Amino acid sequence: MKTFICFPKDTPPDIETALSELGCEARFIEDADSLNNTEPAEGWLGAIVTVGYNEQKAVDLCREMRNRETPVAPVILVVQPGLMAKLDRLDDLFDECLAENAELQEIKFRITRSIKRFGKNPNSPVISYGPLALNLETYQAIVEKKPLDLTYMEYELLKFLVQNPGKVFTRDTLLTRVWGYEYFGGARTVDVHIRRLRAKLGEEHAGLIETVRSVGYRFGRIHWQV
Amino acid sequence: MSIASNKDQINYVMRTVEERKVRFIQLWFTDILGTPKSFSITPAELENALEEGMTFDGSAIDGFSRVQESDVLAFPDPKTFQILPFQKGNSELARIFCDVYNLDQTPFEGCPRHVLKRTLTKARGLNYNFFASPEIEYFYFAKQDPPGSPQPLDNGSYFELTVADLSSDLRKRTVLALEEIGIPVEYAQHEDAPSQHEIDLRYTDALTMADTIMTVRLVIKEVAQDNNVYASFMPKPLEGVQGSGMHTHFSLFQGDQNVFYDPDAEKFLSETARHFIAGLLHHAHEITAITNQWVNSYKRLVSGYEAPIHISWAHNNRSALVRVPVTKASHPEATRIEYRAPDPACNPYLCFSVVLAAGLDGIQNAMELPKEANNNLFEMSDRELKKAGIRPLPMTLEAALTEMEKSELVAETLGEHVFEWFLRNKYYEWNQYSRHISHYELARYFPTL
């Protein structure tokens, strides 16, 4: 999780610099609709909303972020110097604020502190989906807090799938992207490993990996899919 | 070519051992007769073992010793690293399959895994991938110390009322333990004979399946032992009831295409499949010593128990040696043949090697498939069989060895070392057996002669 929502496109350049120096990514959006359909699989790390001229739109976006099923937090508001008093009536819609002309170091401090307050860490090696989590640093996978004892190839396949939820992959694509070395099974190797993964995930979670008839496989869904 | 493993794979194994607090790693390999062998190493020794192999004295292993030098190298294959579902105390236990090499890093010719890899590589040269899916039959018996005669669990008064539950419960636990280590079970059931069970495995490539069979045999035995029961893969432990077979389904693929399937052919059975079966039938008598390697194996291959005794094929005839389940048009990928001779006490690496080699020979020489055997072969007289051109499988280990000894195909497939050692070892077994005076002889002859 390392992607910040930035609104609008003409956010002060120091904000983007600060994010990149902190190892985070900025994704610029113009309206509340993009909130869902540009969300990365692992979710938003937070949002930086510059109030600027289009105050109503910014407020609407903040409200939308608060009211959604998985609220975006922290929300950091950026306002013109001297207009901080405006924020008083928006108190419940943001977690931190910044003046547009704040120096780079201050921006970084405030971003870091507000992320920490929500228990998040942009440099976490953990990727997760529903009950499943993989730690890319220690190569360990857990489902519902119980360790999964995977072989190397099963781990690599699961990692690839969890990093690309909701996408359908053909066997050949999986074979080149995940294996890419000598093997004895050809394209059917993929089927064999998918079955082994499903067995290890157990009956309850085997359905996370779907067979897409005559195409290939899909892991999980992305949020906006019906 | 370096035989050392890929760095990422080694890192994966090392980190997992550390994170999961694995205390011992078992290095697994198989001797020529398919007996699992292993030695345990500690995490401290593991990295070195993965990079340089572990030296051990091969002369301690049946079929591994050679005249001049006896040290060999066990090279772990990190892709096969797996934490096992049996904890020893509080620490995890893991296994890795090994390939055995000579000290100069050339493949050791006595290693069955090499024999199979070599045969699979040959098939891949023809662009074929070979898949196997076995049905493993076995018995549960009451555990006795010292081992006496086999006592089935669900027959007789020994365990009384609860026994049927016990053996089915053991099988269920085994299936769960297998799934936990990523071995999907297609089907598990109680078999015809008392205390006999069957576990059918979903297909994998033949090398993975041979490794898997070694694991499954161990898991079946371990789960039984934890419950004070003895699981046996002996081909025919009880007289008068069915023995244990390992009917195995085989298929050949080119990429995504099952080459046994042809939408335009009769019953969708392709020309390639017909040649493959023809090759298998042509060489069946030569490979029987490998698929059925014990004196006792031939007590299973007798008339009347659904075990094959004649070299024949059919779509729907369970007395045939090769059965070809009819393919549904909706599942062309499932086209396969079922070879019904092997028993679960075979060496799966060698068994798959000779079956594949026989089939490939059929393809390469475009062998003609004989007529399908539609009658129940058990009911045909010897004369009728002869007229139909149906030959019997070897009826004893000795007969099978005699056929194998004459076989170029088996010699080439196994390689000189395995071929010669196997024959020597098995003739010795036959000679030992020949000296034995059986209960049958005493009961039959002693009172009258």
Textual characterization of the structure:
The complex is a heterodimer of chains A (226) and B (449). With 226 residues, chain A is α/β, with parallel strands linked by helices. Chain A has two domains: 3-117, 3-Layer(aba) Sandwich (Rossmann fold), CATH 3.40.50; 126-219, Winged helix-like DNA-binding domain superfamily/Winged helix DNA-binding domain (Arc Repressor Mutant, subunit A, Orthogonal Bundle). Chain A has seven helices and twelve strands. In chain A, the strands form three sheets. A five-stranded parallel β-sheet of chain A has the order 2-1-3-4-5, with helices on both faces. The longest helix of chain A is centred in the middle third of the chain and has 14 residues, at 104-117. Chain A is elongated and about 70 Å long. By secondary structure, chain B is α+β, with helices and mostly antiparallel strands. Chain B folds into two domains: 7-105, Ubiquitin-like (UB roll), CATH 3.10.20; 118-444, Glutamine synthetase/guanido kinase, catalytic domain (Creatine Kinase, Chain A, domain 2). Chain B contains twelve helices and 16 strands. In chain B, helix 3 (112-125) packs parallel to helix 8 (348-364), helix 6 runs antiparallel to helix 8 (348-364) and helix 6 (271-291) packs across helix 10. Chain B is globular, with a radius of gyration of 22 Å. Classes of the chains: A alpha/beta (226), B alpha+beta (449). Chain A binds chain B through residues 138-140, 147, 149-155, 171, 181, 183-189, 192, 195-200, 202, and chain B through 6, 8-9, 11-13, 15-16, 19-20, 78-83, 117, 120, 124, 129-131, 178-184, 202-208, 253-256.
Class from secondary-structure proportions of chain B: alpha+beta
- How many β strands of chain A by DSSP? 12
Average pLDDT over all residues of chain A = 86
Number of helices of chain A: 7
> H/E series of chain B, N to C?
HEEHEEEEHEHEEEHEEEHHEEEHHHHH
Kindly state the percentage of residues in helix of chain A: 25-40%
- The succession of helices and strands of chain A, N to C, reads EHEHEHEEHEEEEHEHHEE
Shape of chain B: globular
Which two chains have the most extensive interface, and how many residues on each? A-B, 28 and 40 residues
Main beta-sheet annotation of chain A = 5 strands, parallel
Approximate strand percentage of chain A:
15-25%
What CATH architecture of the largest domain in chain B do you see?
A: 2-Layer Sandwich
SS class of chain A: alpha/beta
Q: pLDDT under 50 segments of chain B (min length 5)? A: 156-161
CATH class of the largest domain in chain A: Alpha Beta
| N-to-C CA distance of chain B | 67 Å
The tally of structural domains of chain A comes to 2
Under CATH, the homologous superfamily of the largest domain in chain B reads Glutamine synthetase/guanido kinase, catalytic domain
| DSSP helix fraction of chain B | 25-40%
Mean pLDDT, all residues of chain B: 89
Work out the radius of gyration of chain A: 21 Å
